[in-house]
Amino acid sequence: MALLYQATLTPSKIELLQAWIPHQPWLGDADATTVEAVGAYRFDDPDGEVGIETHLLRTADGQILQVPVTYRGSPEAGADSWLIGTTQHSVLGERWVYDACGDPVYVTALATAVLRGGTQAELDVVTDAGQERRQATTRVSGSGSDHSAIPPIASVSYSSEGTTTFIRALHLELTLVRAIDLDRESGVPGGPQRLVGTWPGHDAPALLALARIT
Fold first, then answer.
1. 36-86 pLDDT, tens digit each
2. Domain boundaries, the chain
């Protein structure tokens, strides 16, 4: 379960990403002069310290980008190269927003979802009236089995080729689709385990990520 707060962020998430995305090597030919949210999904941090959210954004020319981020309550040592920026949260105070591909907490959560057949986290929102469940509109599911072992994840490295980001952590390799091909077949049998997802306006499962243990 992901616990959210009804709050104002300054700058907003979209404002932070709008400034950051045009400079990323995985952008390809997408026109990111403007981006708008079409969906988002979260994973849960078992320790409750790190917010893990993946944004699905439509660019000015209609392409769908996948941008995972993590939110932390203090700066992470040695993580300056994957810092997107900071934002002021009206409930939690200053938050450091990172490109999640470099964050071991996100990498563990993504690997677990893909390899163990997991889904997005349930969302509970804290409001002035109390805590309430919010229905997820973006849904993801992994193809793996709940018996699969997840290798220890400590040191993480990542790089991008074209519109794909490759994440490596010891014996784990993850492939993150940054520019989603809505026509790509997501159910091909064999090969790495996969994460697929749907969101408002797109009901056919789209390929989001691959995972394999080497």
1. 999 999 999 989 899 999 999 999 999 999 999 999 999 999 999 999 999
2. 2-213
Tokens linked to 148: 């699969």
Instruction: Answer whether 0.90 is exceeded by the pTM.
Output: yes
Q: How many C-beta neighbours within 10 Å does residue 11 have?
A: 15
Structure tokens at 128: 């002035």
Sign of CA dihedral 172, 153, 71, 80: negative
pLDDT tens digit sequence for 88-132: 987 778 999 999 999 999 999 999 999 999 999 987 777 666 677
CA dist 101 and 83 (Å) reads 11
d(CA 193, CA 186): 11
Q: Please check whether residue 176 is in contact with residue 167, taking contact to mean a CB–CB distance below 8 angstroms.
A: yes
Q: Which pairing describes strands 2-5 and 123-127: parallel, antiparallel, or unpaired?
A: parallel
d(CA 111, CA 212): 9
By C-alpha distance, which of 100, 89, 105 is closest to 67? 100
Contact in structure between 2 and 124 (CB atoms under 8 Å): yes
